[in-house]
Each structure stands twice: as structure tokens, then as C-alpha cells.
Amino acid sequence: MINRNDFFITRKLGQVRQLRDRHLPPGTLRHRLALGAFWSLSSSGAFLVASMVVSVLCGRLLGKQGLGELGMVRNTVLLLAAFAGTGLATAVTKHVAEFRHGNLARLGGLIGLSNSISMAIGCLIGLLCYCLTVPITDIALNARHLDLPLRIASFLVPFQMLQGMQTAILSGFEAFRKLAILIVMDAVFLIVLVPTGILLSGVNGAIVGYVVVATIGCFTRDFVLTLEYRRYAITIRRELCYEDLSVLWRGATPLVVLWIVWQAADWLARLPLTHQAGGYANLGVFTAALSWSILVIFLPQQISAPNFPILASLFSAGDSRGFVRTAQTVWLACAGLSIVTAIPLIFLSKHILGLYGAEYLDGWPVMMLLTLTFAVNGTARVPAHVLIVAGLTWLHCLFTFLWGAMLCIIAILLREHGATGLALAYLAAHVVYLLLHSTACLRVLNRVQQRNSLHASS
Q1: Is residue 8 part of a domain?
Q2: What mean pLDDT comes out for the span 451-458?
């Protein structure tokens, strides 16, 4: 009986492999895209579940006021990390994808230089954050009691910088399976350490939990990257090379500017609420709604993220047909998945916020608006990637600046409406963001198609 069962299972597994090899032949573009999407989906799903569980626990243990304070401290750290050069990671992913099958000596220099720059700037910005916590909390955040949490959070900046760089390098190598395992480990540590920290010391303990999770993530990623370097026979060079610095400067500068603009607008848009009566309670509702609304871009992100290095590789290789076909397919998939995911979240918004406690129930309109916002955001992801790969990163920066300006202006005008007004500002700004990127993306794809037609005719 056991042998028959074993034979049945073996036969079914063989049939599955045959179907996989027929529809997704190894080494093809479809296989690369499907493999990246599968591992990205699996790992990020685990991390998203952990993040939502942690969000609910934080909301129940800290209340609206405490959750708003925790969210604002973390948002401040993200802004500082942007100044530390978080956008550099996207440029590194692009260069690793382009050079990993070519000039390995130059790739080793680029990786070494990128790691050194990110860690040095991260430590510098973290130190500045530590020294400037009093004016930040007293003037900007209007909450002097957040001095200690922000000092603790300053240690997050260098570790987040390094972890982001390590993740970007692994994505460039298309080491999606290994990266998936690392992300699942992050999820386990997150769901254990952050709630434990809250039970021990409230907001301060939660921040300590986040710092420990980031630290562990850096060490595990460093170990896996060492194996990847050996696999590709890459020697990491730490010395300064002006040629490598020039490549990073041209590729990373607009992305760093982009990330600074995005995070600064996100932070500035929330500041008016911190100076309103009950502002941090409103931010608590906004943070809770945001934690679940972001679920809308989960599937689009899992498809578009591994697609970015593939698009970069296709564009660099001059495969115009593959580039256009891949971009169009993934764009339509992201738009459809965003809409399908948003519909049930809109109808369940009140029940979801009820998980946080009765005091959050009146925030269901906020969650509905943010869910629509992320449906728009999920549709805009691929057009943004197309512009970056096509070398139009500064145009992408301009569109992001316009998004940020509109977000901050509307947030100020609607500050009297609390979290609902802030959510409306996000929705309006994202609609404009999508329209601008979609128009530019269509022009790029049309130009690439015309170029392909000319080559075919000649």
C-alpha cells in the first residue's frame, strides 16, 4: 500500500514537472519572471502577515495615541534613511543585473563601493539624528516625550541602509529563493520581538524590537551574499575607483533625490496633524488603516519587483520586443490585481479596524480612501520602472516632486478633517501621479516598438 502511494505521488510530481517544463522552459524569460514572482510572493506573503499581526497587536497594546506616536517615529526614520541614500539600492540592482554575466571585476568594485557609501552615510545620518532628537521632537513632532524613542530609532538608519543594499544586490543576482528565506526569517523575528518589546517598555520597547530585527537581517544577508560572490567568482574591492563612483553617481543620484522627495512629502503631509488637538490619535487611526490598505499592492509588488532587474537586463541587451511585451504584460497584471484586491478590503474596512479595538471603528472611511489610493499606486508601479530602466529617472523624479507638492498642499488644506482629510490628500495626489507616469510610459513603449520595427525592416 505504501509503495502504491509512493508511486502515485511520484507520478503526479512528474506530471507537474512536465507541465512546468512545457509552459515555463528553464532559462526562458517566462521561467525567470515566474520564478522570481513565486519566491517573492511566498516570502513577502509571510512578512506581510507578520506585519499585519504586529500592527494589530501594537494598536491594541498602545491605543490610538501610542500607535500614532510609533508610526510617526518610524516615518521620521524612513525620511532620514532617504537622506542617507536609500535610493542607491535601486541603481545597484540595475547595475548588478547588467554586469553579473559580463564584467565581474567592475561589478566587484561597484558592489564594494556601494556598500561602503551606504554604511558610511547611514552611520553619519544616524549620528545626526541622535544629536538632533530634541529639536525634531520639540518643534517638528510637537511631542518632546518622543525624544528617547527617536534616539533609539536613530540606530535603525545604518542597519536599514545596509539591509536595503544587501537586498538590492541579491535581487540583481536574481537570487529570489535565497532572498525569500531571509525575508521569512525577518517575519519570524518581527512577530516575536516587537510585541515583546511593547509589553516590556511600550513605544520604546517596540523601537528596540525593530532595531534588533534589522540587525539580525544584516548579518544573515551578509552570509548569503558571501556565498553568491563565491558562486560568480566576484572579488569585492573596497578601494575608491573614480570610474565606479561616476557610474553610481549618474545612476543613483536621481533615485536618491526621488526617495528623499517621496519620504519628505510623506512625512511633511502628516506633520499638520501633530499640531492639532487629538492629532496623534488621528495618526493612530491612519497608521492602522495604512497597515491593511497596503495589502492592495502586495500582489502587484511581487510581480513588479522581480520584473525590474529583468526589464533592465532586456533593455541593456537590446531586446526591444521582449522589453515591450514584458512591460505591457506585467502592467496589465498589476492593474487587475490591484482592483481585485481593493474591492473586498473596501467592504471589510469596518470589520478590519474592529480588530484594533472599538476606538478605531470610526476610521473606516480612512481605510476605504487609502485602499483606493493603493489601487492607484499598484497600477503606477510598472510605468515608474519603465521610466527608470529607459534612463528617464529625472522625469520620474519630476513627477514624484509634483505628487509630493500636491500631497502636502491638500493635507494642509484638509488638516481640520483629521485622518480622513489626510487620506483624501493621498488619493488625489496618487491619481495625478498615475496619469503622469502612464502617459510617459506609453510614449517610451511606443518609441521602443518603432525602433524594433525599423530594425526588423532593415
Answers
A1: no
A2: 59
User: For residue 76, is it within any domain?
Assistant: yes
Residues spanned by the domain of 48: 28-457
Question: pLDDT for 112-135, tens place per residue?
Answer: 877 787 788 888 888 988 998 999
Residue 22, domain member (yes or no): no
Short-list 268, 254, 191, 178, CA closest to 223: 178
DSSP letter (8 states) at residue 24: S
For 101, which DSSP code? T
Measured distance CA(356)–CA(205) in Å, rounded: 19
Helix (H) or strand (E) holding 49, with range, is helix 29-83
Alpha helices, H only, 275-319? 279-293, 298-317
What burial letters (b/e) apply to 187-214, b meaning 16+ CB within 10 Å? Answer: bebbbebbbebbeebbbbbbbbbbbbbb
- Total number of domains constituting the chain: 1
Chain-centre distance for alpha carbon 424: 22
d(CA 390, CA 434): 18
- Tens digit of pLDDT for each residue in 305-337? 767 777 777 777 777 777 888 888 888 989 999
Question: Does residue 111 form part of some domain?
Answer: yes
